[in-house]
Amino acid sequence: MKANRITKLFNVKYPIIQAGMIWASGWKLASEVSEAGGLGIIGAGSMYPDVLREHIQKCKKATSKPFAVNVPMLYPDLDKIMEIIIEEKVPIVFTSAGNPKTWTPHLKSHNIKVVHVVSSVKFALKSQEAGVDAVVAEGFEAGGHNGREETTTFTLIPMVKKELTIPLIAAGGIASGSGILAAMILGADAAQIGTRFVASEEGSSHINFKKEVIKAQEGDTRLTLKELAPVRMLKNKFYQDIEKLYSTSPTIEDLQDLLGRARAKKGMFEGDLEEGELEIGQISGLINEILPAKKIMENLIAEFEAAKIEASAIEF
């Protein structure tokens, strides 16, 4: 892979970004991906401020290469989270689930590069106007919290590319080198990959959850709870409970009561496969083994190079 706008922006070897997922993206995973030439991301969404500081410090000891922190802006203790990021001199921040204008100027004043995650052209343009350095355009194939528009990655990327001047990162439904190549052909400068890295040895998710990910087949995930915050999850007992409740025309309060608190932690971190929220992407149907993060990176790079050769032989 040749250097491009994203590898230059982040000072990394490959335009491969490991998504900052809650309950999966701790310092071990982030440092391994960064060491392998990609951009590892610590997922702050499932961390108290003091826990985040510990992960940042351990990541800095484990790698001298750039890494980032992902911050969902709807979470509490946001001021403390941002203060720690600045104090620890984290070089790159990925923000999501909020207005990019809120923190971008402040972070950039501390020489931190800012990337915002969006699910539509409208919010990609708002992010560019807010001064972010790059945008992640995430299709609704992605796991976890998602856009209400339900725009697929292959539709979203060229639409966003047409309107943006800043670098563009594709996300959602990408777990192979050929997927990275396809996203880049459509206009992306890099790919952000989540689900494939959940099924890694270094991912901090519970082994029960990882095993469910590699067992998943086509159609085993569903986007639901759109009235609260749309989320893609594996179909399990909790999901079936949601479907049963929907059949009664529930109020938002009814849905909130069923969701309760810490469902994602219960499922992904504690390994409760029945009552937990098991957030994962559609591409889980193509993943069938748990691998070291370094091996995942090696596979992605080799697949990308092989896909380029195969693509060059296609005739029209």
UniProtKB/TrEMBL annotation:
It comes from the Bacteria. Gene3D superfamilies: Aldolase class I. The chain crosses the membrane at residues 164-186. One of its GO terms (molecular function) is monooxygenase activity. SUPFAM superfamilies: Inosine monophosphate dehydrogenase (IMPDH). InterPro entries: Aldolase_TIM, NMO. The keyword Cytoplasm does not apply. This is Nitronate monooxygenase. Keywords: Flavoprotein, FMN, Membrane, Monooxygenase, Oxidoreductase, Transmembrane, Transmembrane helix.
